[in-house]
Amino acid sequence: MRWRLILPALGLLLFAAEAYESNRDWNIQSSPHRYVWWSFIRLDSDPLNRSIRKDKAGWDLPYQIVDPGYLANASLLSGLPVFVASAFIMAGLSRLGVSQVLTFMISTPVLLFAWYYFLGWLLDRWRARRRVVNN
Question: Which residues of 66-82 are buried (b: 16+ CB within 10 A; e: fewer)?
């Protein structure tokens, strides 16, 4: 079994499932929001606060209490270095005015794929060495 192919697929599936779940919860209201939540991670769509909203009827809370759930916990714990690196990337690009939503949704899956591929490669290598020693 090739773990270097299976683990990235499972990691991206976890990320996509949580993104779908988070998006489904926040698409109930039709008005645009400044903050988008991926599980309990708050993403700012306008980090430099450049847009002037004409519709003040719908306002966003910058903080809320969120129960992450099993999908987010599994994704976060297994890919912790990725989420830390993604936070640094988001912080750096948000100073330039790039949306954190865009940065997170592009950088995190790419980094997750690379991380899980690396873990799968290590597991495949360990299994191959173990097989050679036992024979």
Answer: eebeebbebbbebbeeb
For residue 72, pLDDT beyond 90: no
Question: pTM of the prediction?
Answer: 0.79
List the beta bridge partners of residue 35. 44
Q: Is the dihedral of CA 40, 62, 106, 89 positive or negative?
A: negative
Give the separation between CA 13 and CA 5, rounded to whole angstroms.
Answer: 13
pLDDT at 89: 96
Report the alpha-carbon distance of residue 115 to residue 110 in Å, rounded. Answer: 9
What's the pLDDT tens digit per position in 98-133? Answer: 999 899 999 999 999 999 999 999 999 998 888 888
CA contacts within 13 A on the Cβ side of 98: 12
Alpha-helical runs (H) found in the chain: 3-26, 69-78, 80-94, 100-134
CA distance 40 to 22: 9
